[in-house]
Amino acid sequence: MRFLYLSILLLFCYSSSVGQNTPIRKKMPAKRTGTNPKIDGLLDDPEWINAPIATGFIENNPTPGKMETADRRTEVKLLYDDIAVYVSARMYANPDSIAQELMTRDQIGNSDYFGIFFDTFLDRINGNGFFVTASGTQFDAKYSQTGNEDPNWNAVWDSEVKIDEKGWTLEMKIPYSALRFSSKDVQTWGLNMLRKRAMENSQTFWNFVDPKVSGLMNQEGTWEGLEKIKAPLRLSFSPYISSYVNHYPSTVAGIKDFTSSFSGGMDVKYGINNSFTLDMTLIPDFGQVQSDNRILNLTPFEVKFNENRSFFTEGTELFNKGDLFYSRRIGASPSYFKDVSAQLQTGETIVKDPQESKVLNATKISGRTAKGLGIGIFNALTNKMFAEVEDAQGNRREIESQPLTNYNIFVLDQSLKNNSSVSIINTNVLRQGSSDDANVTAFLFNLNDKKNKFYINGAGKMSYLTSNGTQGNQKGYFYEAETGKQSGNFTWSYEQKLADQVFDPSDMGFFTNNNFFDQTGILHYNIYKPGKFYNTFQSFVYVNYSRRFKPAAYQNVYVEMGPYIQFKNLWSAELILNWRAEGNDFYESRNGDLYKSPETYGIRLFVNPNRAKAYNFGGNIGMTKQELKDGKIYNFYFFQNLRLNDKLGFGLDLYYEPSYNLVNWVGAHETQSIFSKYDRNTVENSFDAKYSFTNRMGINLRARHYWSDRRNSAFYDLTSTGMLKDHQGPALEGADKNYNVFNIDLIYTWQFAPGSELSVTYKDISESSMDYYTKGYRTNLNNILSGPQNNSLSIKMLYYIDYLDIRKKKNKIIN
Length: 815
Prior knowledge:
Blueprint: H1 2-16, E1 27-29, E2 53-54, E3 58-61, E4 74-80, E5 84-92, E6 113-119, E7 127-133, E8 138-144, E9 148-150, E10 158-164, E11 167-175, E12 186-197, E13 202-205, E14 221-227, E15 235-247, E16 258-271, E17 276-282, E18 349-352, E19 359-368, E20 373-382, E21 385-390, E22 396-402, E23 405-416, E24 420-431, E25 437-448, E26 454-466, E27 474-485, E28 490-499, E29 516-527, E30 534-548, E31 553-567, E32 572-580, E33 583-585, E34 595-597, E35 600-608, E36 615-626, E37 631-643, E38 648-669, E39 672-694, E40 697-718, E41 724-726, E42 737-753, E43 756-770, H2 777-786, E44 790-798, E45 801-802, H3 803-814
Parallel strand pairs: 1-14
Antiparallel strand pairs: 2-4, 3-13, 4-5, 5-11, 6-7, 6-12, 7-8, 8-9, 10-11, 12-13, 12-14, 15-16, 15-44, 15-45, 16-17, 17-19, 18-21, 19-20, 20-23, 21-22, 23-24, 24-25, 25-26, 26-27, 27-28, 28-29, 29-30, 30-31, 31-32, 32-35, 33-34, 35-36, 36-37, 37-38, 38-39, 39-40, 40-41, 40-42, 42-43, 43-44
């Protein structure tokens, strides 16, 4: 520990001696227009003639600081009126060098694109980005803090592109309804613009974004002199209707193979004022989201799945602060279930036990004041769920498995100077009846120096669980503190985290374990200036030292390091080395008993291609060695992508992980934890294809098969000293595992009007878990394909209605 503290002190002294220039900020005057230009991609409108020009874009990658040449220059003009901001852009290029893969909304693919960033409150932390590819596809995103991108945010705006002999052109109309800004008579916005050339993987910015400097929005220019603009009434409705047909070959008498349903609901957006927006979803339908990548989990911790439901991903940057919000808790992965088995009567068995509760409604209110105070309120309600049980005579009854539950988040986030901020966040879960409730409060801070070189951030959190069980109410605490150097070729960080024995935010957040005191140090050295044979070189060292908090005990030391290099031909390679010392593991036993975890070390090599090529491939290979019982894990991953033309593309991913002589927990006999030595194979194959009819209509296909097993060869008892001895009790039955999952997602989408969409989704899902081993990949694939399949077909139509459009049409009729 003395060596670690001394190293950090020396690094701090070294980095303090390295200077950093103050960034230069470009300025662009705002010009009001009396008539709006036609958005057709042609730049011949008279309104553009006298508009100020933004040019002189500077390369950020691969050669930072390099100016655009005259024959490759970018010229951008901006106008505004009482309704919207208008953008015209001319991207000079050889037409043959313009990549223009056709994709549907929010997907870039292999395509050149142009983007513009607006920081409407000029806090140099938060902003909105609007992007258009050379094929006309729109993409938009929110940005916060040091450049964190939220691509799930969507707005309704117009754009058109044209390809000509000089390159390509673009026009955009971004209505004020898509932005939030203050009510000042004269305003200055943060502004930056980006151009990406896909063939050479280069990007240039109007205001230079130095890769050695941490952050994106803090390296923006300004758009000055916007006068007397007012936010319009922001009120929109998105009603939907959906219909489902589902088929599953049930083996239970009285249960139909075919089921169908019809439902409807609505999303509502309302601009409370210039800065704040209310989002509400009533009886939402998430049947069109991509299926989860389920796996065989042999660890003591929960698997974290991605959130694919748009309402819970769009515009949630405020609610995600402090890592207290895991949106899958709402409906998809609740943390609390009543014990149905304890309520069974003699002879009863569980016939049906749903694991997902129905979301009845959800509401978000979020925004930021002119003085930089962000406020967020989130509330969601899920319905109660019932398990169905049956006795020997075939009589059935329902048992409540999940109560009616309310989820709530409240956030205050104050932006400060120098990209700094302080935040308070509270999450609250209330369950109907005598079920457990939970409340978590956190205070967060993030402070940067004037030059954005050094930082310090941290958090203090408290959880309070109201339990109606034998444990009673519990109050737990957590803190973290981190400091470091975040800009320059050489960066570093040092972090401490501590959680006491009862801290638990998992009712609404994702949290694996508590009762630890961890210290982490990270060093980075990056070279951004290209050399003779490379574009970028990066390297890192990561060290983590972990202890149990109470009773105090050493847990483990983990070290990881490696270099990354991107070559001139845009191929890249990364080597990762890792080592974990022999440790004290208090989680693997599942009951808190000590397990002396073995020393492990590994190596992994990653190779990635130039993705701009029509056919590209890459992958990685690795090996991990476990000292106990000579355990070994091998990793092989290979992927390939084929783009036949700008409309049609395919991808294939192959993953194989054979493991031998591993040792982990396998079960328990009474209070005795039992471990086993086992071999394991994991194979995962996925195939995807896409065909885009236009930039508003396309089909996407994804098929995935995952197979993993566990073949036990010896069993051990865990001793009081954490060591293993040969198992003395009765043989453990049903300890082998053979798990298969196969799913197909075929989705057709058509954005038939701005903000409106028709989707047709076909899903096929099959899953099997057995306690005996089935040898051979082909056999397992045949078994899962020939087994019972859950097939569903759904159609959903969502129509966007803007209240202002309705009012305009009404006024025209009257006049």
